[in-house]
Amino acid sequence: MVTMRDVAELAGVSVATVSRVLSGARQVNGELAERVRDAQEQLGYRTNLLASGLRRQRTDTVGMVVPQVGNPYFSALMEAVGRRLQRVGKTVLLVDAEDDPAAEADGIHRLLDRSIDGLLAVPVDERASSAALTEAAAHVHLVQLDRAAAGVPADLVAVDHRAGIRAVVDHLVGLERRELAFVSAGPRDSTARERAKAFDEAVAATGCTAQPSRLGAYTVEWGRAAATALVDGGRLPAAVVCGNDLIALGVLAVLVEAGVQVPERVAVTGYDDIGFATLTRPTLTTVRQPIDELAAAAVGRLLHASSAEPAVPAVATDAPDPAVLAGVASPVDAAGAVDAAGAVDAADVPVAAQDAPTVQRFAPALIVRDSTPVGGPVAQRGDEVSL
Amino acid sequence: MVTMRDVAELAGVSVATVSRVLSGARQVNGELAERVRDAQEQLGYRTNLLASGLRRQRTDTVGMVVPQVGNPYFSALMEAVGRRLQRVGKTVLLVDAEDDPAAEADGIHRLLDRSIDGLLAVPVDERASSAALTEAAAHVHLVQLDRAAAGVPADLVAVDHRAGIRAVVDHLVGLERRELAFVSAGPRDSTARERAKAFDEAVAATGCTAQPSRLGAYTVEWGRAAATALVDGGRLPAAVVCGNDLIALGVLAVLVEAGVQVPERVAVTGYDDIGFATLTRPTLTTVRQPIDELAAAAVGRLLHASSAEPAVPAVATDAPDPAVLAGVASPVDAAGAVDAAGAVDAADVPVAAQDAPTVQRFAPALIVRDSTPVGGPVAQRGDEVSL
DNA sequence: CTGTTAGCGCTTTCAA
DNA sequence: TTGAAAGCGCTAACAG
After folding, report:
1. B61-159+290-317+330-360 fold
2. Which residue is nearest to nucleotide C5 (CA to C1')?
């Protein structure tokens, strides 16, 4: 291994000078600097980040944990985050939680043990992920992305799922589809809980009817299983509202295989707008999450993290619900704050204490495609309705 | 930050003893050990891997670079590799090359700078990736997975693409589809080149005809573009053979949208068998790569990496081509070896010099679904044909 | 502006 | 067996 010492000797200077030249921290005599750089080049020297990190007590490295690398929504999030962090010279260490809180906790610890400067987390489970994340928050800057775990004293950047689901239901009801079925993931994570709650509220608000919700997992398999039950049960709804696109794709496949006309007999909607949503026949009406904005906001908060004032995001400012809401009360109430976020009137919320967790919500957009019928007052096919 | 020193003081022993207890390296008095463990528990001490790694000169960490985290084939590979490494106590650091050799080189350096013990790479570009990988190979154990870069002195674990493509063409020709079109990625990476070559060979061998190959990228967009050209050109082939499933999904979508009957008028095949291949209408006939076996073999080689004898893989031993081939000659010839691998008779290859790169090929399987018509001698719909 | 020196937190000789 | 001490490669005080 070639060390800084080797470079120093070859350049005929002290290691301190080498360090200064390479880090650009201090002014160094031009000629010396050149000698150092030559020597570095010649030896192919690269600084050892273990040593550097140990000494500096920072590594310019941030960790990111996602529930499932195989879910296209998360891989899109990973890509967006990665690009942004690279741009500012940070390295991202990715960890796959394999949809398992234990594996997630493990991964988080592995990251912490490597002295990351910050952590971006999409918690697997609203409760089971809390312990590991709370501990993590005690050691590094932590920002929750997309989902929140209960009681974790860390900011959350996510979209306004209530608005997203409400837009879907409004769209369907506008098309006179008034008997709905909701197929989603069980209330294990915060998005599933929020979407389920939002669905119930939307049903109540619009006065349509809904079959008992079918809650499983955010997977194609669950979508297939639920749709099979729907078809076999013989009580087809006028529309199936799905908690995410994977479920919707599973539902769609089963319905089409069973010869059910989509959207004529049954409409189907998804959530996330993953790339594959345009590849099915019919294509999938869904809710698009502004991934780049989410990534930018999360990274911004992470890098901050002292200019903690919840700046208004560059986009999505004209949402019906305030796009930015200060979190309420104490850290332990964070989950409650998340839960209530959509319901709180921003004007009533005092500027929170400096370090209280903040929730930043972005507005999603309804993307109307072929899996919902044409017509109706809310949106035409092909429309992209910003909320 | 709580250090080993804190634990030592609380336990009333020296740091050396703490280190010994925690690493389990040496025998330590039972009572002292217990005191140490209590202290650790009480303080929530975790060993600092920066310091430990710096001292030990190993980190029990391996890096993995993939061309695109968003490609489901690669995320499946990442998952399989991650699970296997976790099982043996290694941590994986994932890096996304963003399909860009420069970003890839950057990512590789970032990993090397962090003193990883080994690197698993799926090179983006057969030539442009060589420099960074060759350099990496000089510092850490390197294993190439799925793809190889030219001249890199490192083992390769991949599938026998020649056999895979040949099976597809045989299948189609067996169904009397004798006018083919090949849509794939340009010969930037080794798999694209191998598949293109295999296609040409298969066409020649079976005596069917083929339109000029349409080579772009391994993306849905390219599949769409190529299919649009095909439809607009008016010269529809009897079957479109695609270089991977993403392309095939794009082709399928465009054909179906254009009202072309699939598979009646045009059959379509993919490659990889990503999960989404079963979600389209019709479902996609494709070639499945044995991901778990690939991951196991690659990880095995990485961990090895001294028991370097090319052990016969547990599965896929009955492939028509030998599943395991020793690499030939010098490291600089590695690319040639890869290229010729399928064509070399294993019996002729002497046991290679201890450290010559080795190519380990696994047999893929043809998965017959609805995008190719029924009948024919080779495979029935629903079949899974091991090669 | 440059060099010397003292660690960062840990593992591992080397003595005791 | 245990402890003292050296040192992994680097950066940051502190002198000069």
Report:
1. Rossmann fold (3.40.50)
2. A16
